[in-house]
């Protein structure tokens, strides 16, 4: 466990360990839950589809393509739960493949009307 005060800035880093130097890493979706084994019932989205859902979420530039960094302010689930657990989905893409999902950044998916 990592103990922090409310609203303290947290910084995280994910690293890809591969012998292939032509890969890049992208943070797609991160959610928080008060339960380490249930990320569907009570969750809080930090980012979804590469788009920040929380106003304090911020991607942090990395000098290496195989390292993804981001930060956000610490929070709790209405003070009823002593811990917050994170689950993040990261994408691995070919470096410099600008048509890949890693290079698209934030992708907002809009639902269509039944009439369209």
CATH class: Mainly Beta
Cα radius of gyration in angstroms: 16 Å
Helix fraction, binned, reads under 10%
Q: Let me know the number of strands.
A: 7
CATH fold assignment: Immunoglobulin-like
What letter string, H or E per element, gives the SSE order? EEEEEEE
Overall residue-averaged pLDDT value: 90
CATH architecture call: Sandwich
% residues in beta strands: 35-45%
Global geometry: elongated
Count helical runs: 0
Structural category is mainly beta
Weakly predicted, low-confidence segments: none
Q: What count of structural domains?
A: 1
Query: What about the largest sheet?
Result: 4 strands, antiparallel
Q: Biggest sheet, strands in spatial order?
A: 4-3-2-7
What's the name of the CATH homologous superfamily? Zona pellucida, ZP-C domain
Q: Distance between termini?
A: 49 Å
């Amino acid at each position: 466990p990592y103990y922090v005060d409310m609203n303290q800035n947290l910084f995280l880093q994910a690293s890809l360990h591969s012998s292939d130097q032509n890969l890049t890493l992208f943070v797609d979706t991160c959610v928080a839950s008060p339960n380490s084994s249930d990320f569907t019932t009570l969750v809080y989205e930090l980012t979804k589809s590469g788009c920040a859902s929380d106003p304090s979420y911020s991607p942090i530039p990395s000098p290496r393509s195989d390292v993804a960094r981001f930060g956000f302010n610490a929070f709790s689930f209405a003070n009823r739960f002593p811990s917050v657990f994170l689950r993040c989905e990261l994408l691995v893409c070919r470096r410099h493949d600008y048509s890949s999902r890693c290079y698209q950044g934030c992708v907002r998916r809009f639902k269509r009307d039944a009439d369209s």
